[in-house]
Specification:
Blueprint (H helix, E strand, L loop, with lengths): L2 H21 L4 H16 L9 E3 L7 H10 L7 E3 L15
Parallel strand pairs: 1-2
């Protein structure tokens, strides 16, 4: 996209976010981020919801999903079991790990 096209896209994004805010609506990503932040704060108390997490279809998760998962269990040698196949990705762009 050219400079003027990018400016139009960002204007649309800003208007979309302003409308969501004005109507008290959250997107799925905003809900996930709020949960990740709440769980991160909870983890500061030394409490975690889970000891281990199994993740299937990992190729369809975004960075905010990974942030939430990381906050849900303590970092140990067997904290996350992750299964995924990038050739089956249907929802998102690849996430570099």
């Amino acid at each position: 996209l050219g400079r003027s096209q990018r400016a139009r896209v960002w204007d649309l994004v800003d208007r979309y976010q302003a409308r969501l805010t004005s109507e008290g609506i959250w997107s799925g990503e905003q809900i996930c981020m709020a949960a990740a932040l709440a769980e991160t704060a909870r983890s500061w108390t030394g409490q975690r919801r889970y000891r281990h997490i199994v993740v299937d279809e990992a190729q369809d998760l975004s960075a905010v999903h990974w942030r939430l998962l990381r906050a849900l269990c303590p970092e140990t040698t067997d904290d996350l079991f992750i299964a995924g196949d990038n050739f089956q990705r249907i929802y998102r762009q690849p996430l570099r790990m």
